[in-house]
Design a protein that fits this description.
Helices cover 54% and strands 8% of the residues. The protein is an alpha/beta fold. Strand 1, helix 1 and strand 2 form a beta-alpha-beta unit. The relative contact order is 0.09. The model has no long low-confidence stretch (mean pLDDT 89).
């Protein structure tokens, strides 16, 4: 039985939530309180899996409540349900709120959002790892992203495509931009997974304000914590996988989701090198000593690999399930029963055929995964054969090399 805490200063709103969500009482134990201080007192006294809070409340507002929760109970899933929305307020919430829903919110949407996030513990079963990920307020963006964006936005003939290309070239910024544009603030009719569309909706000024926000991003300094990993090399690998994935899914319904999954498939490494660099270094040593893939060594040392850890964070941020699944299983897609060519298979194939792999980012030669081949493709309803797969991937990698 999962426990959910609802916070709103208006009693009619709480009564309405209690009535609308009554049918979930067999799955959730729900508590309703009318202020931030009462919410914190309740959290002191009892364990909760998720908190859903209003934003504008007297005395202690929702952002203050969530700041306290993220500091003291980081494993708790944090959702804002509010009728008050402006971009700056949304950016203020980004470090502490996993998702943002707007009032009025239909019951099925609220139930689905809570239910999906609660099920994420199946990806990351260790409470201490969930707490580590839940504690994250900001992740490192590459210094060159700031410089390029500043330079570009200072010109008169900047285009959406130009800005989107820079945003997409940084895993952390791309993920954050899509998290924000899909928050309920924008009340979109459908979810956006295309970076160019996201930049169009946000506008240049908002993208610049977001990227330059010290509350959301921190600059990664070479030689600091996590120095065993070269962030620039890792990002180069990510973009090569993204190019290959794009080539495999061009003009298909899954193209946007597949490209997004490729762009963020290694975001777990950003988490590991920020939150537990010593464990990552130990896993690297184990992988070298025993000749095993690094993701297997990570699981033995940390309890989960960068893949599951990254997928868990993206799930908290409300990314589509197809993206979460592809990130979680891009090293071992056969763990998932597949009958069609989908986002996971596209990313997994692109990842398998892209050289060098992410181990190149560690300045050492590591054992790779078992390569995917034609036998894997034969199990899927793919729109092409293996010869076409390899041709598309090779051409995408050659084109990417020419651009760099």
């Amino acid at each position: 039985m999962k426990r959910i805490l609802f916070v709103d200063d208006e009693q009619p709103v709480l009564d309405g939530l209690r009535t609308r969500l009554h049918r979930m009482h067999h799955k959730w134990e729900m508590t309703f309180v009318d202020s931030g201080p009462r919410a914190l007192a309740e959290l002191e006294a009892n364990h909760y899996d998720a908190i859903v809070t209003d934003m504008r409340m007297p005395g202690m507002d929702g952002a203050q409540v969530l700041h306290a929760v993220s500091a003291r109970w980081p494993e708790i899933i944090r959702i804002v349900l509010s009728g008050y929305a402006e971009l700056q307020q949304t950016i203020r919430l980004v470090p502490v709120a996993h998702q943002y829903l707007s009032k009025p919110c239909e019951s099925p949407k609220l139930e689905n959002t809570i239910e999906r996030t609660l099920h994420l513990d199946e990806l990351l079963r260790q409470p201490q790892l969930r707490a580590s990920v839940g504690r994250i307020k900001k992740l490192p963006a590459m210094p060159r992203t700031y410089a390029k964006l500043q330079e570009l936005l200072a010109t008169d003939n900047v285009t959406v495509q130009d800005v989107a290309k820079i945003v997409a070239a940084d895993t952390v910024i791309a993920a954050r931009v899509l998290q924000i544009v899909n928050s309920a603030f924008f009340r979109l009719a459908r979810r956006i997974t295309n970076v160019e569309q996201a930049v169009t909706y946000l506008g240049f000024a908002a993208v610049r304000n977001l990227v330059m926000s010290a509350e959301i991003f921190t600059e990664w300094k070479a030689g600091g914590r996590g120095a065993c990993l070269d962030l620039e090399r890792l990002q180069t690998h990510v973009l090569r996988v993204a190019n290959a994935t794009q080539a495999l899914t061009a003009k298909t319904p899954i193209a946007d989701d597949a490209l997004l999954a490729a762009l963020v498939h290694d975001i777990g490494y950003w988490i590991l090198m920020q939150e537990c660099p010593e464990d990552l270094t130990e896993a690297l040593g184990l992988a070298k000593a025993e000749g095993i893939p690094l993701h297997e060594a990570e699981t033995r040392i940390i309890g989960s690999s960068h893949a599951e850890i990254g997928a868990y964070l993206l799930g908290l941020w409300g990314m589509p399930y197809s993206v979460i699944e592809a990130v979680a299983f891009h090293h071992n897609p056969r763990r998932v029963t597949q009958t069609d060519f989908d986002v996971l298979s596209a990313v997994a194939i692109a990842h398998s055929l892209t050289e060098p792999d992410e181990s190149h980012s560690f300045d050492t030669k590591l054992a790779g995964d078992e390569k995917i081949d034609a036998s894997y493709l034969e199990t899927l309803k793919a729109p092409f054969d293996w010869a076409e797969v390899t041709r598309r991937v090779e051409e995408s990698l050659d084109a990417g090399a020419d651009e760099s």
